[in-house]
Amino acid sequence: MTIQHPMEDLIRMDRIPHIWCSGCGTGSVFMACLTAIKESGIPYDEFAMVSGIGCSGRGAGYINIDSFHTTHGRAIPFATGIKMAKPDMNVIVFSGDGDLFAIGGNHFIHAARRNMDITVICVNNLIYGMTGGQMAATTPHGAKSSTSAAGNPETPFNLPLLAYAAGASFVARWTMLHSRDVADAIQLALNNRGFSFIEVLSPCPINYGRRNKEKALATLKNYHDNTIIKNNADLFELDIDFKRGVVLGNFINKERPCHDEQYGKIYHAEAG
Amino acid sequence: MAMAFWREPLDSDGVHVTRGVVHIIEERCKGCGYCIAYCPRKVLEQSKSFNKNGYHPPAVKTDECLNCCYCQLLCPEFAIFSVEAK
Amino acid sequence: MKPAVLTGKHFINGDVACAEGAIAAGCKFFGGYPITPATEVAEHISERLPDVGGTFIQMEDEIAAMTSILGAAWTGVKTMTSTSGPGFSLMMETIGLAVVTETPCVVVNVQRAGPSTGLPTQGAQGDMMQVKWGSHGDYEIIALAPCSPQEMFDLTITAFNLSERYRTPVFIMSDEIVGHMSEKVVIPKADQIKTISRKKPKGPKHKFKLYQPGPDGVAPMPAIGDGYKVHVTGLTHDEKGYPVMSVETQKEMMDRILGKIRNNLDDIIMTEQYQMADADVVIVSYGISSRTSYTAVDMARELGFKVGLLRLITVWPFPDDLIRDLAKRVRGFITVEINLGQICREVARCAGNLPTFLAGHAGGAIVPPEDVLAILKEKFAS
């Protein structure tokens, strides 16, 4: 008798195998997310997952809960609509760095500013993976990509700082190698009433790794050897620099009233 | 094999160490090697056989699995998990 | 706290009447963004939604506004947004998402002269082709054109009913003149207002297929959290809702989405006729231009022209068959619209060899009845 993988009740098994490449970290982040959902004890029907376009965006297609695969960059406003129309839902946005911070950048900062009670998980592979490896807002300076063959002239975002500056009430960064920490951070985020942001560094062995001469296991070695866990780090030192050491941790966890509370207090108070 | 102690603790007979049984869903494996490289007890090795996609799935090489479930969390293909040994 | 239906006589402008119509129809969520001349819809509805336990949110841009109403619609509520030309252009990609995911919602476009920033405070009807073709790919939508604040109230309710019945975005193509004109609006008693809500699925949840059509061609729509574990995607999908990247699935999906509308034209197409019984020249018009066209008909009749007005209440789907039938017995058509020729192309397409003319201009004011008379005198003098 074959025993089932314990997470199969949360996976749309009729769509497996998934489309992620060998060594792609998205599957690991996805598994950490499923683990957090299962361990939270919250009924599955109280969750909704919204994703955008990209490799990480395919995550919504594999999770066995109400899930929405929306347009590029627009997962967060879609999630906002769900949350504001049905505030008791736990809404998770599962998307990538290109989707959330380039085309979706404006929506990210406003949802953070409003402290919209959603959990945003950003699978950060430093590149636009699905379309073939173009540079992203998170690509390191000098890195090769298909639109910066001689090296990226731009400098990337410091995502935790951006999220905090915009108003996020929970900010964390881990790598997919630190899967237990990712799952724990997602649990904390689900319990946090407010905008929760978790950046998870993840390898893209094909479209980032090949061009930058970095095999998947080498990326994981980087995550293992050249990262420092510092939960109360100064957000200003969170630039991603593997030579200096990338800082990981749960940086901010400070509740403040979230948008549906604020709206309810002012506009639904009469109804009681 | 137990840990190497300088001196045997007086209650070491009564201490129960969790053991795990690793289950590998070989057809799902895409041969990334993450579980093999990062199992804390080095329980896994690459198998000589390969699955129908041509990848070498992991194989259990020792009985030292402690059921930490790290492989289960880390595997991007949902191809490996452990359960507590009875 | 005011009730949803403010029964009685009001003197309000078109935008406010539209917001009242939405509330009366049961709208519970509005995601908006300010833009002249549609802002008053958002302002008024932001005050009224709390009365009915609804939620208003001003999003950061029109793309976010349109996207937020889709998310809210999937929680089971009736949703709406309002905008004008520049915002409408921004919403186009998301409108495609609404069509292909079969998400009911109402989008109000209070048109102003374009292109680009144009004349923000002056009306036009220049987005009529855009509402049908603005997003990429083939699709059908329903677009209604109110000609008065009363119709802004009534047709907004109709729009919600159509969107719920056909699981499709429905557009109120208004314009700045109707939007900002204040007139008497009579709001009936609540029990005299007919509202329709989307069909909910029955039967075992694990067997449910998200896009399997019912006998009327429309699939019942579950809400998030009801236990149906829906997967909704903008990718081409099968009846389960799962992405399938094949030519066959694309055809099946498009047949289903287009068929919903194309097989129900009798229910969707609404027109009104004035002095058409013996007309041998037909004025085709909609929205504010149909108001001025009533005057044009009266003035023309005084001069001896046998003119009638066909007012399109539903502009899309376009009433092909009606125009073709009329073409068999009239001498020609004049389309009156505040643009450089958009719906007149549809009229010409269906009119065969009959002469069709445009009384219109680039925008910013009404088309005066005299422009219609000029065409009659020049082209249709007996």
What does this protein look like?
The complex is a heterotrimer of chains A (272), B (86) and C (382). Chain A contains 10 helices and 8 strands. Chain A has 272 residues and is of the alpha/beta class. Chain A has an 8-stranded mixed beta sheet with strand order 2-1-3-4-6-5-8-7, with helices on both faces. In chain A, 57% of the residues are buried. In chain B, 12% of the residues lie in helices and 19% in strands. Chain B has a two-stranded antiparallel ribbon with strand order 1-4. In chain B, strands 2-3 form a two-stranded antiparallel sheet. With 382 residues, chain C is an alpha/beta fold. The longest helix of chain C is centred in the middle third of the chain and has 18 residues. In chain C, α4 links the parallel β4 and β5. Classes of the chains: A alpha/beta (272), B alpha+beta (86), C alpha/beta (382). The interface between A and C is large, with 38 and 45 residues.
Which short descriptors sum up this protein?
heterotrimer; A: 272 residues; alpha/beta; Rossmann fold; eight-stranded mixed beta sheet; B: 86 residues; alpha+beta; two-stranded antiparallel ribbon; two-stranded antiparallel sheet; 2 helices
Record the SSE blueprint.
The complex is a heterotrimer of chains A (272), B (86) and C (382).
Chain A: H1 26-40, E1 47-51, H2 59-62, E2 66-69, H3 75-85, E3 90-96, H4 97-103, H5 105-113, E4 118-124, H6 159-166, E5 170-175, H7 179-191, E6 196-201, H8 205-209, H9 216-225, E7 227-229, E8 246-253, H10 259-267
Helix pairs in contact in A: 1-7, 4-5, 5-6
Chain B: E1 20-24, H1 34-38, E2 44-46, E3 58-60, H2 70-74, E4 80-84
Antiparallel strand pairs in B: 1-4, 2-3
Chain C: E1 8-13, H1 14-25, E2 27-32, H2 39-48, E3 55-58, H3 62-73, E4 78-83, H4 85-101, E5 105-113, E6 119-123, H5 128-133, E7 142-144, H6 149-166, E8 169-175, H7 176-180, E9 182-187, E10 231-233, H8 247-262, H9 265-268, E11 271-274, E12 281-285, H10 288-302, E13 307-312, E14 314-316, H11 320-327, E15 332-336, H12 343-350, E16 356-359, H13 369-379
Helix pairs in contact in C: 1-2, 1-6, 3-4, 10-13
